[in-house]
Amino acid sequence: VQLVESGGGLVQPGGSLRLSCEASGLAFTTYHMSWYRQAPGKEREMVATISNAYSNTNYADSVKGRFTISRNNAKNTVYLQMNSLKPEDTAVYYCHAQGAYASNTGQRYWGRGTQVTVSS
To answer: Which end of the chain has the lower number of beta carbons within 10 A, N or C?
Structure first.
């Protein structure tokens, strides 16, 4: 199983970035997908989650109204559109997959992360 993130980089405050995570080696539609982030000296935290079947979404309070998670099951890809970025959004962003059914609920996978830096 591989989760490969892309789209990170350096952006000015108020700017936008779109992260992508392409999954391979798993039945994508049977996994809930999430984005997490970890800033230096801080614990990893959940940013946004999207369910496998009905694409129900959930967001951390700190990003509500600014970030949007979506998925394209035909492309085995999950996205994170980040708008109105703030310096405190600076972190390594990780893609995460968790099994959605009894047969795979214990299966969890992580990508290697992509750096997002918000600075002027």
So the answer is: C
Under 8 Å CB-to-CB from 14, ≥6 apart: which residues?
Answer: 84, 85
pLDDT per position as a tens digit, 83-106: 999 999 999 999 999 999 988 888
> Closest Cα partner for 93 from 32, 25, 36, 15?
36
Which residue from 48, 45, 58 is spatially nearest to 92, judged by alpha carbons?
45
Taking the C-alpha atoms of residue 72 and residue 45, their distance in angstroms, rounded to an integer, is 23
Say if CB 24 and CB 1 are below 8 A apart: yes
Tokens for 83? 């708008």
Residue type, 16: S
- Over residues 38-85, the pLDDT tens digits come to 999 999 999 999 999 878 999 999 999 999 999 999 999 999 999 999
